[in-house]
Automatic annotation (TrEMBL), chain B:
It comes from Neobacillus paridis. It holds the Pfam family HupF_HypC. It comes from the Bacteria. This is HypC/HybG/HupF family hydrogenase formation chaperone. Signal peptide: none annotated. Belongs to the HupF/HypC family. Transmembrane segments: none annotated.
TrEMBL record, chain C:
InterPro entries: HypE, PurM-like_C_dom, PurM-like_C_sf, PurM-like_N, PurM-like_N_sf. Residues 37-147 form the PurM-like N-terminal domain. Belongs to the HypE family. Gene3D superfamilies: PurM-like C-terminal domain, PurM-like, N-terminal domain. This is Hydrogenase expression/formation protein HypE. Pfam families: AIRS (PF00586), AIRS_C (PF02769). Residues 160-309 form the PurM-like C-terminal domain. It comes from Neobacillus paridis. The gene is hypE.
């Protein structure tokens, strides 16, 4: 088999369909032993989307409880930060560069898309490093990148700073509002609001962090985690291993994505992170400020720190009946929110979980509203 | 929390590489995977190669899935 | 002749006259259009189809077509999927001052060629020139007139088990145009599918019976058009993900950008719903045409109770598909 053929096996129905049956059989075994369904949380927005899009979640719904956790970077960003980023775009002589996901996120008054339509220069980039190029090409404008993301995306922000340094740019900065996985997992476990038999750990974040970075789950909380990829066979085998561990009453971290996740993560990336960034407190939607749960630029890079360069004034966030905060914590399923599918739907999102491509509500609305 | 796609490196420069994704091509940064070589598959996120896919492990995973399936269903191969 | 379009080309004077004579009339070959304020056309029928569409696209030349080819094929296809035989087109141009006349010639030539291929005559036209910056190059509106043919058409009488056919690979146009813009730094060896489908669709209408409906899934893609059919006629439509033809390269770009091919634009594809009995024959005929060589049966009508579109994933799970909501942005997280 060529490499491409090997990679394609991960979505081969001939492997995936029987894997569904294997997982179900294992889940039945769990239920016989414990009298309930096993419950796992995925803490990665791409998992949330992949589980729903491929039909893994639907196929297993009677046997395994899969709870979406705080894994969508846009969704976990608290409303005040969202409002601040939107307000930032109102300033004159600025170019705002962002990932596409941010464009339609509802602020208290408007979205970035509204501002763009009203004539503000807001650009969606696929490759964030292009923002540095935008700054170089527009020396008379301030170019600000909206730095939202978890560990997979954060290193790319440091690359941008490196590039801006190299080009000696004075008009480029990043509005940092990044999030880390470990502090939020600890928050959830400390809060103890959701009963879990294990975590489906994020395949791409783990590329950066490495397999060893999750040992605290076992040593401090006695809970399992399986690092998992995004294709159906990867998801199914990850869930299978979680059930197996739970049946044996064994807490352990397994790497089910060994082709890309190494034990110690990507060391080159670690060096970049250490050079430019330092831990900071971050406010999370529905959870408040979690100490040391984000990364910010070190003071010596203040020049590239948009929060140091610009002040924006935001009022109290508008109160809505949106329950995104509880959805993110895994306390309620999206359809338990009174707005879900009524006032709040993808064309008129009220909370970020309905708009982001990885949001739990968007995934639920798109893929899970009815069963067939 | 990210879109990540396996892409094959077909041309390598100092800090970037041309990659092929099922016949479409794009340039990605390779600063995070300096050891990458032409012919390697990499996971791309937001225009950067984040990890090199190790064929041996990818193969092992496929074998493992087949085993899981067969353990349940011994009559199929 | 001048190199660029100027405002004077739109003022109705000598330059306008020359532009019309040298570019439009010489390509479309209908002198009536310039001698009178309206074209006189004759049609031996009591029932005609009329449709109009405006074309704005960036870039105006893209792999597999141009705004000119698109302006003819798009309107021809709207007539053809309605079951009418396209006969006449009119065209209106809004051109930005400074637009290269050589490009205008290319566009007009593409229109003439596509009109010839699809057997329609361009009988009337109009040109306006706007100041630089007031438009982006060129916009074209075409109106099409088609003739319904007796005894041939779509019945709109749906039944459980009716097959859903798509005439070829989806998303080609969307990806060709997106990558041609060059903004994303992605190259894909994909041509737009932009093509007139009237000859192919006429063939299936003539040589088979039992065609229920035909639609062209343009903006919004295959999924959006199927949702519309499902809702308009209260049908539950089931499609199989693995049966839908998608080029590998299109998959590749979608993977990179987080797009879904089901929602990408097509400009040379038809969705055909036909009785189960005739489905294979329809596919066989479609495949004889170059535009239909990848035609495939992608699903069926499973019930006539609830208007909804369901997609069966490779795992066998089903999920609901909805319309495209808002513009697709490249996503990251």
């Amino acid at each position: 088999m060529s490499m491409l053929e090997i990679l394609k096996q991960s979505s081969n129905p001939e492997i995936c369909k029987p894997l569904v049956d294997a997982v179900i059989q294992k889940a039945v075994e769990f239920r016989q032993k414990f009298g309930r369904k096993p419950a796992f949380m995925e803490v990665c927005g791409s998992h949330t989307m992949a589980l729903a899009r491929t039909g893994v979640k639907q196929s297993l719904k009677d046997y395994v409880q899969l709870i979406s956790g705080p894994g969508c970077p846009v969704c976990v960003t608290d409303q005040r930060s969202i409002d601040a980023m939107i307000a930032l775009a109102e300033g004159d002589n600025r170019i705002i560069c962002t990932f596409g996901d941010m464009m339609r996120v509802p602020g208290s008054n408007r979205t970035l898309l509204d501002s763009k339509i009203a004539g503000k220069d807001i650009r969606v980039l696929y490759s964030p490093v292009d923002a540095v190029k935008v700054a170089k090409d527009n020396p008379d404008k301030e170019v600000i990148f909206l730095g939202v993301g978890f560990e997979t995306t954060i290193p790319i922000l440091t690359l941008m700073v490196g590039e801006a340094e190299k080009l000696r740019l004075d008009n480029f900065s990043i509005w940092m509002t990044t999030k880390l996985v470990e502090p939020v997992l600890r928050y959830l476990l400390e809060a103890g609001e959701v009963q879990l038999d294990g975590f489906l750990l994020p395949g791409h974040v783990s590329i950066v962090l490495g397999e060893d970075a999750y040992q605290y789950l076992v040593t401090e909380y006695n809970i399992s985690g399986v690092i998992t990829g995004f294709e159906p066979a990867e998801l199914l085998s990850g869930i299978y291993k979680l059930i197996d561990l739970a049946i044996n009453g064994q807490a352990s971290i397994l790497n089910n994505h060994p082709a890309v996740v190494r034990k110690a993560g990507n060391q080159v990336i670690h060096q970049w992170l250490e050079k430019y960034l330092t831990e900071c407190d971050e406010a999370w939607r529905g959870m408040g400020v979690i100490p040391r749960s984000g990364l910010d630029l070190k003071p010596e890079y203040d020049k590239y720190n948009a929060k140091k360069r610009f002040t924006v004034e935001v009022g109290e966030p508008k109160k809505t009946k949106c329950r995104c905060g509880e959805v993110i914590r895994g306390l309620i399923s999206p359809n338990e929110c009174p707005l879900f599918g009524k006032a709040c739907h993808p064309m008129n999102p009220i909370g970020p979980c309905m708009v982001s491509a990885e949001g739990s509500c968007a995934a639920y609305y798109q893929y899970m509203r009815e069963s067939f | 929390m990210c879109v990540g796609v396996p892409a094959k490196v077909i041309k390598k420069e100092e800090y970037s590489a041309l990659v092929d994704v099922l016949g479409s091509q794009t340039t990605v940064g390779i600063i995070f995977v300096p050891e990458v070589e032409i012919g390697d598959y990499v996971i791309v996120h937001a225009g950067q190669a984040m990890s090199i896919v190790e064929e041996e492990y990818a193969r092992q995973s496929v074998e493992e899935w087949k085993k899981l399936v067969n353990a349940r269903n011994p009559e199929t191969v | 002749m001048e190199t660029y379009i100027s405002l004077a080309h739109g003022d109705g004077g000598e330059l306008s006259h020359r532009l019309i004579r040298d570019i439009f009339v010489s390509a479309f070959g209908d002198k009536n259009a310039v001698m009178f304020d309206a074209a006189a056309i004759t049609m031996a029928t009591h029932k005609i189809a009329v449709t109009t569409d405006s074309f704005v696209i960036k870039p105006i030349f893209f792999p597999g077509g141009s705004i000119g080819k698109l302006a003819v094929a798009g309107t021809v296809n709207d007539l053809a999927v309605s079951g009418a035989k396209p006969a006449y087109l009119t065209c209106g141009f809004v051109i930005e001052e400074g637009f290269p006349i050589s490009n205008l010639k290319k566009i007009v030539t593409d229109m003439a060629n596509e009109a010839k291929k699809s057997g329609v005559t361009i009988v009337a036209g109009d040109t306006k020139v706007v100041e630089r910056g007031s438009a982006d190059g060129v916009y074209i509106n075409t109106t099409g007139i088609g003739v319904y043919q007796p005894e041939i058409g779509c019945s709109l009488e749906f039944a459980e088990g009716d097959a859903v056919i798509v005439s070829g690979t989806i998303g080609d146009h969307g990806i060709a145009v997106l990558t041609a813009r060059g903004e994303l730094g992605i190259t894909a060896p994909v041509n737009s599918d932009c093509a007139s489908l009237n000859n192919m669709l006429e063939a299936i209408l003539k040589d088979t019976s039992g065609i229920k409906i035909m639609r062209d899934p343009t903006r919004g893609g295959l999924a959006t058009t199927l949702v519309e059919i499902a809702e308009d006629f209260q049908l539950t439509i089931n499609i199989q993900e693995t049966a839908i033809p998608v080029k590998a390269e299109v998959h590749g770009v979608c993977d990179l950008l987080g797009y879904d091919p089901l929602y990408l634009a097509n400009e040379g594809k038809a969705i055909i719903i036909v009785s189960a009995k005739e489905k294979d024959k329809v596919v066989e005929i479609l495949r004889k045409f170059p535009e239909g060589k990848d035609a495939a049966i992608i699903g069926s009508i499973s019930s006539k109770e609830k208007g909804r579109l369901l997609l069966e994933t490779p795992l066998g799970a089903k999920r609901l598909l909805t319309r495209l909501s808002g513009t697709m942005f490249p996503r990251i997280c």
